């Protein structure tokens, strides 16, 4: 290939790119000039919708991220579910509650705690969230003065362990 051929090949490529740019600009200007037309906005919306679809799974929204309750049990800061199960037995929670996985926990005074994580409320008064559950276990009568669940002198550390265990319980 001679220098001359190579040069004209290069020129051809540059010309092709330039004419592409010019044509796109011309179409863009024409489209912008058309009343009621917003090609840039429309393209942005299309691109946005497309990308949103692509990245939806990245967003941490409850409806599209399956709740991993084992993970949630770990979000009870400082909570160890296994230690929690032992403590639930020691505090005698089973005299009033059914607590799956805890020996002799067949009580019927309070609600069955199977599937506790799926409840919306704790004792009907607090939203079912880790911090509120810890508060409830420490001082139920502060939150529900008429409740039959007694204040058992649960320490915050113990409450955290027990809360993390309760969040591992699946519905039956
Ligand atoms: C003397 C019986 C009794 C004991 C002991 C007891 N509870 Fe309760 N518990 C109840 C009652 C009754 C309720 C229902 C409270 C209400 O609705 O006011 C309750 C509510 C709860 C709730 C909220 C359940 C829901 O679905 O709303 C949790 C969680 C709970 N107890 C955990 C425990 C743990 C953990 C222990 C041990 C540290 C314990 N309880 C000890 C009687 C008891």
Description:
- Helices cover 52% and strands 2% of the residues.
- The protein contains seven helices and two strands, in the order ααααββααα.
- Strands 1-2 form a two-stranded antiparallel ribbon.
- Helix 3 (69-75) packs antiparallel against helix 7 (156-166), helix 4 (81-91) packs across helix 7 and helix 5 crosses helix 7 (156-166).
- The longest helix is centred in the first third of the chain and has 31 residues, at 3-33.
- The model is unreliable at 59-66 (pLDDT under 50).
- Heme C binds next to helix 4, strand 1 and helix 7.
What letter string, H or E per element, gives the SSE order? Answer: HHHHEEHHH
* Strand percent estimate: under 5%
Give the biggest beta sheet.
2 strands, antiparallel
Total beta-strand segments: 2
**Alpha-beta content class:** mainly alpha
- CATH topology (level 3) name of the largest domain: Cytochrome Bc1 Complex, Chain D, domain 2
Shape: elongated
Distance between the termini: 79 Å
What is the average per-residue confidence, as pLDDT, rounded to a whole number? 83
CATH first level of the largest domain: which class?
Mainly Alpha
How do the strands of the widest beta sheet line up side by side? Answer: 1-2
User: How many H/I helices?
Assistant: 7
Tally of discrete structural domains: 2
Low-confidence stretches: 59-66
Task: Draw up the topology in text.
Layout: H1 3-33, H2 39-55, H3 69-75, H4 81-91, E1 121-122, E2 126-127, H5 130-138, H6 140-143, H7 156-166
Antiparallel strand pairs: 1-2
Helix pairs in contact: 3-7, 4-7, 5-7
This protein binds heme C.
Residues 88, 91-93, 95-97, 109-111, 113, 116, 119, 121-124, 137, 144, 147-150, 152, 154, 162, 166 line the site of heme C.
